[in-house]
Amino acid sequence: MEDYEVCTCNNINKSTIVKTILEKGLTTLEEVQNETTAGTICGACCDEIEAIIKEVNNS
């Protein structure tokens, strides 16, 4: 998996989001936002976060 910064406002990387999704069984954008703070400031990364959620939960 390529790791990169998904949320620049909060400096959250893809690996952090994926790890949190897997460890906590997250399935929604809101759950990821609550657990990681990614996507909670400007919202520009929300579509990318939703794509990561789908990718992780469909694999």
Which descriptors apply to this entry?
59 residues, mainly alpha, globular
Structure description:
It is a single chain. The protein is mainly alpha-helical. It has a domain at 1-40. The protein has helices at 14-24, 29-36, 46-57, and strands at residues 5-7, 12-13. The protein has a two-stranded antiparallel sheet. A hairpin with a 4-residue loop joins strand 1 (5-7) and strand 2.
Category from helices, strands and their pairing: mainly alpha
Shape: globular
- Write out the strand line-up for the largest beta sheet, numbering strands in chain order: 1-2
Strand content: 5-15%
In helices, the fraction of residues equals: 40-55%
Report low-confidence residues grouped into runs of 5 or more: none
Strands, total number: 2
Task: State the order of secondary-structure elements, H for helix, E for strand.
Answer: EEHHH
Oligomer: single chain
Q: Calculate the terminal CA-CA distance, rounded to whole Å.
A: 13 Å
Report on the biggest sheet.
2 strands, antiparallel
Radius of gyration equals: 10 Å
> What is the mean predicted local confidence, pLDDT?
97
Per DSSP, the total helix count is 3
List the helices and strands and how they pair.
Elements: E1 5-7, E2 12-13, H1 14-24, H2 29-36, H3 46-57
Antiparallel strand pairs: 1-2
Give a short synopsis of this structure:
The chain is mainly α and 59 residues long.
